[in-house]
């Protein structure tokens, strides 16, 4: 496959994946809220999905690296997750939806980490240009979140289930064209498994866990928080879009950033930006200030995500790139977000959203402290 076609194919996978996420993140929990789920139930249903995301990427990643089966697993999980999601159209009861979400999470879990591994494999020595591919996901997120906000205002929240199903099926259809591993592995996967427990990797992953846990309140309750302040769903979509627009800009500029600033510095600054963002959100109901905090998404998510992908890639050997990305995804978007979602559900019921975001600020600041404690040795990037 030519370089241009491969780049377009990977860009399309990011575009559709994060377009679907642009429906799910702002509106699925809001859908659950409007069909009568409590804050604890919303936190729980989000947490079980992320629990599956914490557990199963490692299993899928190990199988992919052990048997050189990254592409078949990627395709199978893509189509299986679509079929399971369709079951949400059949019920609005809490426990059946919980069970559906568990099974869905099992197959949805490895998709993004495998896609990141495909991308790192393709980029090779051009890894610091990763943002130029990943930005298509952010562009899609912006377009989708604004358009779907208007569609939901004009129709009902029920439409999101069908839109997510259609988008997921489209991405699965394109997944069959992804090539297998571009370069053969040269080491055994055991070396990679041992490295996951080494101090540099384990310290980084713990800091990333705290950082993503701090985002749990945002992803689970930001839309609900805005609605409780009296803002409409179109404006909710705009607020999400502002955040991702800032993310797009920083991804476009990412090659300059990562060629001039160390990964460690980017990671630390991102945690500090997140802490400031959550503390500010906890203290205000002003729309201009809320919109300003959304701009900080460029750093609290954008630069942190890109630096994390690059850091785990440089820490893992060639034969264990898939399991390395799977571990990063499992610990952050899996375990970290699970803690964030479930903790947010409990806190929201007991204290409301202001305390919730203040606790998120503390978690992000703690992540910064862990990164400084486990900082790389002099001379390492």
**CATH class descriptor:** Mainly Alpha
First-to-last CA distance: 33 Å
What's the total helix number?
17
What kind of assembly state do the chains in view correspond to? single chain
Report the biggest beta sheet as strand number plus sense, adding barrel if it closes: none
Q: What is the CATH architecture descriptor? A: Up-down Bundle
Would you identify the regions where 5 or more consecutive residues have pLDDT less than 50? Answer: 182-188
The SSE string, one letter per element, is HHHHHHHHHHHHHHHHH
Strand fraction equals under 5%
What share of the residues lie within helices? over 70%
**Alpha-beta content class:** mainly alpha
Describe the global form. globular
Q: Can you say what the CATH homologous superfamily is?
A: MFS general substrate transporter like domains
Rg estimate, integer Å: 19 Å
Overall mean pLDDT = 86
Defining traits:
381 residues, Growth Hormone, Chain: A, 17 helices, mainly alpha
Can you lay out the helices and strands and say which pair or pack?
Blueprint: H1 3-34, H2 39-67, H3 70-85, H4 94-108, H5 111-123, H6 130-154, H7 159-175, H8 189-196, H9 199-214, H10 216-228, H11 233-252, H12 254-260, H13 263-283, H14 287-295, H15 297-315, H16 321-351, H17 353-373
Helix pairs in contact: 1-5, 1-6, 1-7, 1-10, 2-4, 2-16, 3-4, 3-7, 5-16, 6-11, 8-16, 9-15, 9-16, 9-17, 10-16, 10-17, 11-14, 11-15, 13-14, 13-15, 13-17, 15-16, 16-17
Protein architecture, described:
Helix 11 crosses helix 15 (297-315). It contains 17 helices and no strands. The longest helix has 32 residues, at 3-34. It has one domain: Growth Hormone, Chain: A, CATH 1.20.1250.20. It is an all-alpha fold and 381 residues long. It is globular and about 50 Å long.
């Amino acid at each position: 496959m030519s370089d241009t076609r491969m780049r377009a194919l990977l860009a399309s996978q990011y575009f559709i994946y994060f377009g679907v996420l642009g429906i799910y993140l702002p509106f699925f929990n809001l859908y659950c809220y409007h069909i009568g789920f409590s804050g604890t139930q919303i936190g729980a249903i989000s947490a079980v999905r992320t629990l599956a995301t914490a557990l199963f990427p490692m299993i899928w990643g190990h199988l992919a690296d052990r048997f050189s089966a990254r592409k078949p697993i990627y395709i199978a999980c893509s189509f299986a997750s679509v079929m399971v999601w369709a079951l949400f159209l059949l019920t609005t009861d809490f426990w059946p939806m919980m069970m559906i979400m568990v099974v869905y999470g099992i197959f949805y879990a490895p998709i993004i980490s495998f896609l990141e591994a495909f991308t790192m494999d393709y980029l090779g020595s051009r890894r610091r240009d990763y943002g130029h591919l990943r930005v298509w996901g952010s562009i899609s997120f912006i377009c989708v979140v604004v358009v779907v906000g208007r569609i939901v205002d004009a129709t009902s929240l029920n439409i999101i289930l069908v839109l997510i199903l259609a988008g997921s099926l489209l991405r699965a259809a394109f997944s069959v064209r992804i090539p297998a591993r571009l370069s053969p592995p040269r080491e055994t996967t055991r070396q990679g498994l041992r490295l996951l427990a080494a101090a540099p990797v384990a310290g980084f992953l713990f800091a990333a866990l705290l950082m993503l846990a701090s985002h749990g309140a945002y992803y689970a309750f930001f839309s609900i928080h805005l609605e409780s302040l009296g803002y409409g769903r179109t404006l909710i979509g705009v607020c999400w879009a502002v955040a991702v627009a800032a993310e797009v800009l920083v991804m476009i500029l990412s090659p300059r950033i990562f060629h001039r600033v160390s990964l460690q510095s980017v990671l630390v600054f991102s945690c500090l930006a997140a802490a400031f963002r959550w503390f500010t959100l906890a203290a205000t109901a002003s729309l201009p200030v809320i919109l300003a905090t959304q701009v900080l998404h460029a750093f609290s998510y954008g630069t942190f995500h890109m630096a994390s992908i690059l850091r785990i890639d440089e820490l893992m050997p060639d034969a264990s790139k898939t399991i390395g990305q799977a571990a990063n995804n499992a610990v952050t978007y899996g375990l970290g977000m699970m803690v964030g979602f479930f903790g947010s559900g409990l806190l929201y019921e007991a204290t409301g959203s202001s305390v919730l975001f203040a606790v998120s600020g503390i978690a992000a600041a703690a992540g910064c402290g862990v990164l400084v404690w486990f900082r790389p040795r002099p001379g390492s990037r």
